[in-house]
Amino acid sequence: MHKLGMTGINLTSSLVGFMISLMPGSSFAREIADTAKGFNDLWYEVMIDITIIGAIFAFITIYFMIKYRRRNDDDEGSQKPMTTMSAIGWAIIPVFIFLADDLYMAAKGWTLYNEYRNVPENSLEIKLESAMWSWDYTYPNGVKAYNELRVPAGTPIVLRMTSRDTLHSHFIPDFRIKEDSMPGRITYLWFYPQEPGEHVVTCAEYCGLLHSRMAGKIIAMPEEEFTAWYKAEAENLEQNLASN
Amino acid sequence: MMHVLKDWIFTTDHKKIGLLYLIGSIAAFVLAGIMALLMRAELSAIGPTITTNPNDYNVWLYFHGAAMILGFQIPALTGFLANYLIPLQIGARDVAFPRVNALSVWLFYMGIFLALLTFVVPNPPDVMWTGYPPYSVVTPGNTALYTFTVLLLGFASILGGVNFLTTITFMRAPGIGWNQLNIFTWCTFGAFILQLIFVPVLGTAVTMIMLDKYVGTHFFDPAAGGDVLIYQNLFWFYSHPAVYVIFLPFIGIVFDIVATFARNRIFNYKAAVYGGIGGIVILAGEVWIHHLYVTGMPDWLRVGQMITTLMISVPVGLMFISLVGTLFKGSISFKTPMLYGLSVIFLMLVGGLTGIPLALVSLDLHVSDTYFIIGHFHYVMAVAGTFSIFGGVYYLYPKFTGRMYNETLGKIGFWLSFIGVNSIFFPMMVVGVTTGMPRRYWDYQQFPEAESFHVIMTAGAAIIAIGFIIILINWIHGMLKGEKAGSNPWGSRSLEWTTTSPPLAHGNWEAVPTIKEAWGPYEYGTNKT
Question: Which residue among A79, A177, A202 sits closest to B438, beta carbon to beta carbon?
Fold first, then answer.
């Protein structure tokens, strides 16, 4: 009886949540995925998976190496030719085991990939033009920044990227994300700085002489600080435009 | 002296041509290895170490990659090993087109010569072995040198492909059926099918770069309606299958080494051949997008080829089961070639299994283009391939020199190399995923925590260099002073060991070997024939 009541409450609350989520501009609209955490979790899982497979093969190999070492110079192996049935069995069964693991991994990888590619609503959209060798960002109000991108903590950021000259790749290791920027094409990536802090940005696509020095940073600021900075920059920009 | 020189230059004997390939590819290996040592020295500490000009580093890196893949691995596997072994393994007197064969080896030497011009021309190519535009078009570096090197070596490959596919199909000694071929012969067959299909695509891609740079076309110039991604698609449409052009022959020679030194039949031969090699040939051309996971390809392509990429584990897994299964109930001796053969099993486990996270597009978004990738492909292709080649050289050494190498030196050389490679490439993977340090970096100020790993890697490179010098001394010393090897020092059942060491200069055998019905290259444990 008690259990049933709890279920009822859960059902009501999730229904309420669902209805709120339908309202425009609601903060319940969609939970913002934490892709960096998603990466770490999936990475950990895949590492366990491949370590187990590798350990099984390595253990069997070492066991055979010891057990079947040559004792007498004239010895030969004594493996018998396989019957057709066992040959088919030794092919089909591993194929299904490998395929099952592959498809399981593919499903996991695909799920996380969807989170990486679906930009959350209410993201702050910033344009990025890369060049040899700098990252040029443009905010929605026209404010520009070079190699240092200030963003408000707690807001998902989406970068719309293109390139002025050659290929570059905007890589933010802390957020486990990169995507190439190319002349003539527009690509995007998004990331979600939850806390204030600094994050390295670095170029991951070979772009010539100073490829390794094409580094910048993302500075996530507390929201009020960012707003103040953003307004001040916008006013500076207007004054500059007016004086020109 | 002149007589000997003339004999080698105008030779059409597949064994001499094979050895010419070996000499050329080892020379490329030495040069590309020196480049690797220079790079390791540069990266041993943060900041400029041995050069203040990043361009030097970029040229070393270009040469290292291009020479190792196009000048060392592919020629050593599909040039040396295929030329030397295949006619002997199928009981043929030579290849189908001996003069075409001679043409391919000299094209290969011209390719090496062009690649060497890298160190002479004023603006050496700095485009990496991948040569991505627009950089390869706008760079002051000499992209034409890159294009012509690739074209010459590619042309040599195509000629080799035609030659060997014909040889294996039509020149088997009477009585050798398809199911009695050595795994190495089968693997090379698969590799040359891939070369024949895909090399022209690479030729097209690099030619388009040259046209864009020097003739003024706009294939890759978006301002004039071109597209930068066409190149990457064409390039990887060849270059991913090229991984299997390297993988197939090297796993093939490892199969032959393991079967010989375990004196055992191949476990589930047909699954390895038809499922393993066949599966790889079929899947090879459907996975190239995994090199373009972070280039803004459409999502459906990325996800689709994530699945085909993961499916590569099926044929590779079948081959692996056959390889490990060949040890079952064997009689395993741990001579130097076998140490290399067995080590490839472990190297492939590390390299192959780390391919699984890389296949997952969501994980690749972080590790793509980092040191994790370098670690992965060195394990799976560079190191496993090189260990197979060295194992193959040791394995065939008594056959082509007629003498034995020194077993103790061989083992010392092996263990130094094995320790060296693991202390380079395992830390690389760790650095790649933990710090995210990207590849192709001359300096890494923004990743201070990577420095201690780089010190270990540089030490590992030095260990490999010492190991390789010992290996080279062993090879040269054995050639001059080694004790005479009989025709079959390993007790193998395979056909190449039925002829004298070294085999007759022309024709390989006094008479074409007669094949009994029950014969097979791996029929061990039965009455000796």
Answer: A202
- Please check whether residue A30 touches B, CB under 8 A: no
Residue A213 to residue B445, Cβ atoms within 8 A: yes
Please identify among residues 135-154 of chain A the ones whose CB lies closer than 8 Å to any CB of chain B.
none
Shortest Cα–Cα distance, B438 to chain A (Å) = 5
Whether residues A99 and A157 share a domain: the answer is no
The predicted-structure confidence for B340-356, as pLDDT tens digits, reads as follows 999 999 999 999 999 99
Residues A185, A191, A195: CA angle, nearest 5 degrees? 155
**pTM summary value:** 0.92
Instruction: Please check whether residue A233 lies inside any domain of the structure.
Output: yes
Same domain, A109 and A135: no
Q: For chain A, give the longest Cα–Cα distance.
A: 96
A110 and A195 share a domain?
no
In a domain, A132, yes or no: yes
Cβ contact B271–A210 (<8 Å): no
ipTM of the complex: 0.91
A101 & A165 share domain: no
Beta bridge partners of A131: A134
Range of the domain at A198: 124-239
| CA distance linking residue B218 with residue B209, whole number of Å | 9
| In contact, B515 and B91? CB cutoff 8 Å | yes
* Residues A105, A157 share a domain: no
Domains, in order of start, for chain B: 2-498 (1.20.210.10)
| H or E element at residue B463 | helix B451-481
Residues A165 and A192 in one domain: yes
Judge whether residue A36 has pLDDT over 80. yes
Distance CA(B505)–CA(A111), nearest Å, equals: 61
Question: Would residue A135 count as lying in a domain?
Answer: yes
Binary contact (B311, A78; C-beta < 8 A): no
Which member of B306, B324, B366 has the closest CB to residue A61? B324
Q: Does A34 touch chain B (CB under 8 A)?
A: no
Residue B295 distance to chain A (closest CA, Å): 5
User: Do A93 and A167 lie in a common domain?
Assistant: no
Identify the closest residue of chain B to A132 by CA–CA distance. B135
